[in-house]
Amino acid sequence: MGNCIQHLAAGVTLIAADNTWIDGDAIQQLHTTLTLPGMRHVAGMPDLHPGRGYPVGAAFFSLGRLYPALIGGDIGCGMALWTTDLDARKVSLDKLEKRLGNIDTPLDDDWQALVSTLAPPDTGFDPALGTIGGGNHFAELQRLDHIYQPAALEALQLDARQLLLLVHSGSRGLGQFILQQQVSQFGHRGLEQGSPACADYLARHATALHFAEANRELIARRMLARLHADGEPVLDIHHNLVVPATIGGEAGWLHRKGATPSSAGPVVIPGSRGDFCYLVAPRPSEDSLFSLAHGAGRKWMRSECKDRLARRFTPAQLSRTRLGSHVICRDKQLMYEEAPEAYKPIDSIIDALVQAGLVTVLARLQHEAAQAGIRTEQLEREDGEQPGTLRSVLLSLDGDGEDTLASHWEGTIQWICASPWRPRHPRKNWFIGVARCEAPSTTLADEIRFEATRSSGPGGQHVNKTESAIRATHVATGISVKVQTERSQHANKRLAMLLLAHKLACRDEEMNAAQRGLRRQLHRQVERGNPRRVFRGEGFVPLSS
Among 180-184, 212-216, 465-469, 498-502, which range has the highest average pLDDT? Predict the structure, then answer.
């Protein structure tokens, strides 16, 4: 675990795993920053990359002086996560895109009362409020893909059935204006603690933080209004700022440039436009200066992206990601600059943080199956010996691209982790076999008697009120199943057929001793090599796919 916390020199720390891509220029900038007067410790996150003079994806701790240039011009840039009441199972991306339209124009008069309530007065930058801006800023609707820590998600009141809204933006032109004033007066030599100039900067810095937070809320509310939806904020965290801090027993100033605080509760670490995002619970550590990665981190400079990609992709092709999501951006140059290829894989960032013991993964956002229009359903499971474990599980896939998704998982899955159920066992590589079963023939319906009944037990408004549940009975054998998980008879009927077909298949297997023996043999002979996909740690963080 500790091997991902690399002490490059006295006062220089890098959080990185063996598979984390780190630019050598960024490491040089990290070392150079340590030479600033009063600088005690600098730490690079896994998303570290070169910036304009100073690295991005890093935290810096100084005594007696603070450095506005280390934070940069987008003071208060950060992430805000909101819940929405949009049904993740029913939304149409095309319809959402049409409703959303263009939100880069100033807010109209109808919004001014809310602007006055949320934003600081008299900044001169009110027209920028409620707009995302350029660069790597974005606002996107996301789905909960995989929940690793259900209790934590429940505490945050996140529902897998509803879309989430993630907003990444900052103080727009206000922060840049503040920085330019500082550099013109004081250059890059920083501000002495307690001086009038330092006090003046900190006051304007606080205004920019306030402005940035208001901006993210206005973006979220603007999008929700366009989408005819309601929502509530879950978290809002800055990753460009300076705060007083005590580290190693010394009181000083902690600067963050593209580094998320690890002392503010759960945070979202997003990937590129074509990758997943992760919701994580931080484990604060002085080694990382109480900071985490704020995203995937760039691999390529913006100036080289179009030359690298223009022959491979048109802007229209870049507007659709490998996960099936839509990118709404009218700036063709920016489409190339923000292409997924220009960024590090987010899994390499999360893997480094997990191995370093700095985070616990709570959930992965943006479901690959749902984004591809595929629905999944658990039909049957066989529990394992330990609570919360499975020996086997039967799933159904339904939708366009189901064969592609199935082939993406079929084979051997490798899990690299010290077993939480066998803590003294030296083995860290575990393997899971995934096999595909064909769906039953549609002619099976001729052999089944269907009855509509009322749903029962806990659930939504349809329970005990509508005859949406289906009882399916195989006429020849009398085997019967009841399905009431869906709201419509049609959906429950489809699932009942699948479940009944499975039960019939199991019955046949139970009547055939040879087949039972073969099944046990296959279970023991999972291929321990050539994995289709690899995951690491108790959070099941994917390393490859």
Answer: 212-216
Per the CB < 8 A criterion, the answer to whether 209 and 238 are in contact is: yes
Q: Which amino acid is at 213?
A: E
Question: Rounded to whole angstroms, what are the CA distances from 496 to 27, 108, 422?
Answer: 58, 52, 38
Give me the CATH topology for the region 44-299+343-369: tRNA-splicing ligase RtcB (3.90.1860)
Higher local confidence (pLDDT), 18 or 446:
18
Q: Can you give the pLDDT at residue 366?
A: 66
Q: Is 462 a catalytic residue?
A: no
Do the Cβ atoms of 379 and 38 come closer than 8 Å? no
239, 294, 367, 474: the active-site residue: 294
The amino acid occupying position 138 is F
pLDDT band at 260, cuts 50/70/90? very high
| β-strands 411-416, 533-536 pairing | parallel
| pLDDT category of residue 431 using cuts at 50, 70 and 90 | confident
- Segment 402-424 mean pLDDT: 73
Give residue-wise pLDDT tens across range 315-335: 888 877 766 667 777 778 888
Nearest-angstrom CA–CA distance, 50 and 24:
9
Rounded Cα gap, residues 336 and 333, in angstroms: 5
Q: Which residues contact 278 (CB under 8 A, 6 or more apart)?
A: 268, 269, 270, 271, 346, 350, 361, 362, 363, 364, 365, 541
- Distance (Å, whole) CA 469 – CA 193: 69
Q: 164 and 370 in contact (C-beta within 8 Å)?
A: no
**Count helices and strands in the chain by DSSP H and E runs:** 15, 27
CA atoms of 56 and 53, how far apart (whole Å): 10
CATH 2.60.40.1220 fits 373-438+523-544, yes or no: no
Question: Which one has a higher pLDDT value, 519 or 194?
Answer: 194
Domain ranges of the chain: 44-299+343-369, 373-438+523-544, 452-513
